[in-house]
Amino acid sequence: MESLHAKDKDLVVPGDLIATGMGFLPSKGTYRDGDKIIANRLGLLSIEGKVAKVVPLSGNYTPKVGDKLIGRIEDLLFSGWRVNLYGPYSAVMNVKDATSEFIGRGANLAEIFALGDIVTCKIVNVTSQKLVDVSLKGPGLRKLKGGRLIKVMAAKVPRIIGKDGSMTSMMNQATGVNIAVGMNGMVWIDGTPEGEIVVAETIQKIQDEAHLPGLTDKIKAFLEQKTGKKVEPRAMTESE
Amino acid sequence: MPYLKRFDGRKFDETRPITAKVGIIPRADGSAIFQIGNTTAIAAVYGPRELHPKWMQNPNTGILRCEYNMLPFSGHGERVRPGGGRRAREIGMVTENALRPVLDLKEYPNCVVDVYIDLPQTDAGTRCAGITAAAMALADAGIEMKDMVAAVAVGNVQGSIVADLNYDEEQNKTETEGVADIPVAFMPNSGKLTLLQMDGEITRPHLKQALEMGKEVCKRIVAIQKAALRAKYGGSQ
Q1: pLDDT tens across B164-184, in order?
Q2: Which end of chain B is less crowded, N or C, counting CB atoms within 10 A of the terminal residue's CB?
Q3: Which residues in A lie closer than 8 A to residue B226 (C-beta atoms)?
Q4: How high is the ipTM of this complex?
């Protein structure tokens, strides 16, 4: 007997029965107990064919290879920097991953990246013990100057970026503010003070309403009302 | 004298009125308030986050750390000494043990999930209210849980098996008949017990009856927990 006990896009809580029968497959956020598939975290259910998955609505950031993040230089090491990722684990950035310039033996690393500098970086390796290596080599990865940082819930980051960056590009169109979003939930914004305020408000709104349908239209209307400019949702051409 | 009618007129398996709400502390990763009668528990969850002191870190798995704290003005007249004590440490530990079976923190080596439980108002059943609130807060924090956990006290008040004792019932001892106060916590899907303590004396058949009652009551509390979690996201399913 195979049957589904919840619909796609339903809100599920831990312990909820999703499906019975061996025909369904448990993916992230679910597990199998006998012939039952049960949710093991709070989130929105997604059923693709026979695979049941729970898309989380909350939770801290866990490092994944390939993620683009915003981090803070926390310490200077022998041959690199310790980068605070604003999550449970910090990362190491080796000099060879930091810059293509020549760095001589005994150079003062603080002259390249000082304590407290904010960088956009990319995770290149994560071990089983969650030792993380990050790199600054890649398109759009650099030291961030000026602007300010906002912390958002890591689970909401995909909604803040939008499909192919449509949400951030809409905010950029409306306000002219430069926005960089890290998968760890740090958002860097830089522009006019008025623009930054509008973007900060918009990001808060996206966070609060991320689980509701019709988000793009709502944010479009919100931005148009706040700035009086017409905005058009479209995919971003650049990575920022 | 047999205890046939409860002081507050409840049925024997009826709990005090319950309200539950999730997401009450914006800065916490997860939070919840659980009120049962005059007992109020607030739970806040932080983490998974870096664990200090470093010697407590476990490279095999993340750990759960629970702190139970009755506020100084919370009790019955007498001022509770603020901060930790022997009793608070013990209850913190049994709370950890009651919640750990549903958690899997293997993905977070060297890290900690901190649960802080504060009780601004107490009228018996505090550890149960604390565990129930903590389970909601953990789910709210997006931590993977096999199942929910709900807790309730069951007991024997002068020959009657009752659920969710209040302070007056707990203290209702006579020279001939004692009061048994048994806090229990259940995982509803498997029906397994994660907390079992007892004060007082009880006969074997009465204990069995009390545990069965506790299991049923916990199932009702879990329904309230889940409804509160859904209410945070505007769901009414």
Answers
A1: 999 989 888 777 777 899 999
A2: N
A3: 13, 15-16
A4: 0.88
